[in-house]
UniProtKB/TrEMBL annotation:
Keywords, in A-Z order: Lyase, Pyridoxal phosphate
The protein's name in its UniProt record: Tryptophanase
Species name: Streptomyces xanthochromogenes
Family that this chain belongs to: Belongs to the beta-eliminating lyase family.
Gene name, Swiss-Prot/TrEMBL: tnaA
Classification via Gene3D superfamilies: Aspartate Aminotransferase, domain 1 (3.90.1150.10), Type I PLP-dependent aspartate aminotransferase-like (Major domain) (3.40.640.10)
Keyword check for Lyase: yes
PANTHER family associated with the record: BETA-ELIMINATING LYASE-LIKE PROTEIN-RELATED, TRYPTOPHANASE
NCBIfam families in the record: PRK13238.1
Upper taxonomic lineage: Bacteria, Bacillati, Actinomycetota, Actinomycetes, Kitasatosporales
Amino acid sequence: MEPYRIKVVEPLAFTTREEREAALKRVAYNPFELRADEVTIDLLSDSGTGAISADQLAAGMQGDESYAGSRSFYRWHEVVSELTGYPHILPAHQGRAAERILFSSLLRPGTSVLSNTHFDTTRANVELTGCTAYDLPCAEAKDLDSDFPFKGNIDLIALEQALENADQTPVAAVLMTITNNGGGGQPVSMDNLHRTAELCRRHNVPMILDAARFAENAWLVTQREPGYAHRTPRQVAEEAFRLADGCVMSAKKDGIVHIGGFIGLKDAELAERCGGLLIATEGFTTYGGLSGRDLDMMARGLLEVTEPAYLAERADIAGYLAARIREAGVDIVEPAGLHALYVNAGRLLPHIPPHQYPGTALVCELYLRGGIRSAELGSLYLGEEDEHGNPVKTAPYELVRLALPRRVYTRSHYDHVAATLADIAKNPESVHGYRVTSQSPILRHFSIKLEPVKSGD
Ligand code: F0G
């Protein structure tokens, strides 16, 4: 059961099918453009969408809003130092701000960053520095159905080759995303992290963690990795941070706060460069774009997030939804992780070709039938077309991410999600595809406009 009871509630927004049809048409079939009060169950993101605890709220009331050197900063700093072990810690307002500041200070044009998988903003921030971002996911990640426990791993052979052949494009950093959000929310093993750290040390390249879901990764390590069953998630997390040369963190995930992030570093000189940029673009080094209240709430969230009872229930409720979805005959990326389930829309809707976006078709159908908001992770997110709409690049898989906000929805909410998917699975041929009517050149999925492709079109 949930290791908490509910003290404050917020009403759900219920709409009619006609209202949802009108809303979806108005936003040109792009769920990012929907108003939240048009959505009943919002699984668009697990980022900044969690429920804070009474203790976090109380900590927030202690917030010290002094411009510099606030008590909140020092309380927060102690928590982050003890968790990560990094001597240099800088607050930032969210993960991508931390990325921008670290990458602008660390990367040079013409170099490359290697990763198990870059998250989309992370890739964008690497590329904005003139550096190239390469994803080297392990081979096991390609089989969506297998039970391989650590599909978030980096391909160590490919990594070693890239590090050894770095004459043309020097490798500026290796970035390990834990858990691997772009790769199905799959965890990275400690063995993989240790071996990656060793390769990085040998080639004198810094290893940076994208630690947004460090606690969920640590939990999955305690559950799946030989030798870690008797360790606490906190101990595993501490080990992971100490293996790396630094981290970027979006605390909107495993900080269980609505806003917040940080950079942690071992290198004093690099930290000083980041600090200068932080002051110029985010705020003084003791607040980094956050209020004292935010820092105190993050500090408390970072302690709560590694509690075994919290993580066990988070895994359990994700497993509950995964089981209901499988019962409905719908496939997800296996094994189920914690922060999201990734539905195999390509397999559910095989009659829709990639350039008519099966993932988007499922996203729209979940909204139309159940008022559920989700995100496409397929050819709309990763693909490209020419100016005539002909596909130039399609994604390897057509997925839909059902992100699970922390401590927000209960099993009956997830029963509704599974029932809606089951309803779609009864008659998948009735679902049609979409075509693009307008798009922007970078991160197109946020602002894209689409229209339905009806049979005979
Ligand atoms: N890294 C990872 C792995 C992420 O998943 C995200 C955000 C970021 C960095 C950027 O952090 O949002 O605080 O600036 N992921 C959200 C998501 C948006 O829905 O997966 P941010």
